[in-house]
Amino acid sequence: MTNLAAQQYRQNSVLTATPGELTLQLYNGLVKFIKLAIVSTEQGKVPEANENLIKSQDILRELLCTLNTKYPIAKDMAAMYEYMLECLIKANIHKDVAMMKEVLGYAEDFRTTWAQALKMVK
Q: Could you report how far apart the first and last alpha carbons of the chain are, in Å?
C-alpha cells in the first residue's frame, strides 16, 4: 500500500508541476541515476549500471527535446547536453567511472543553477 501511495504522489507531482519544476525533476533524476550507475559500476553490477546509464541518457534526450530554441542560450545548452549524452554512452560501453563523475558534475551544476533560477522567478 505504501508503494502505491508513493507512486501516486510522484504521478501527482508531475501532473501539477510547472514546466520549470518539471525541468528540475529531470535534473534531479539525472543526478540520481548517474550516482546509482557509479555505485553499481564500482560494485561490479554491470546490468544495474547499464540500466541507470540508459535512464540518464533518456533524461538527457528529454532535456534536449524540451529546450526552448527561441532563446540563444538553448544552442549552448543543447551542445552541452549532447556532450553529456555522448560521454554517458562511452562511459556505459567502457564502464568508465571517471567519465560518469564528470557528467555528474555538470548535471549537479545544471540542477543547482536551475533551482536558483526557479527561486528567483517566484
A: 35
pLDDT digits (tens, 9 = 90+) for 37-76: 999 999 999 999 999 999 999 999 999 999 999 999 999 9
The region, left, alpha or beta by phi > 0 then psi within -120 to 50, assigned to residue 45 is beta
**Side-chain half-sphere CA neighbours of 29 within 13 A:** 20
**Residue 22, φ and ψ in degrees, nearest 5:** -65, -40
Residue 48, CB-side half-sphere exposure with 13 Å CA sphere: 11
| Domain 18-121, CATH number (from 2.30.40.10, 1.20.120.340, 2.60.120.280, 3.90.1150.10) | 1.20.120.340
Q: Which residue intervals of 16-96 are DSSP H helices?
A: 19-42, 46-65, 73-94
- Distance (Å, whole) CA 21 – CA 121: 12
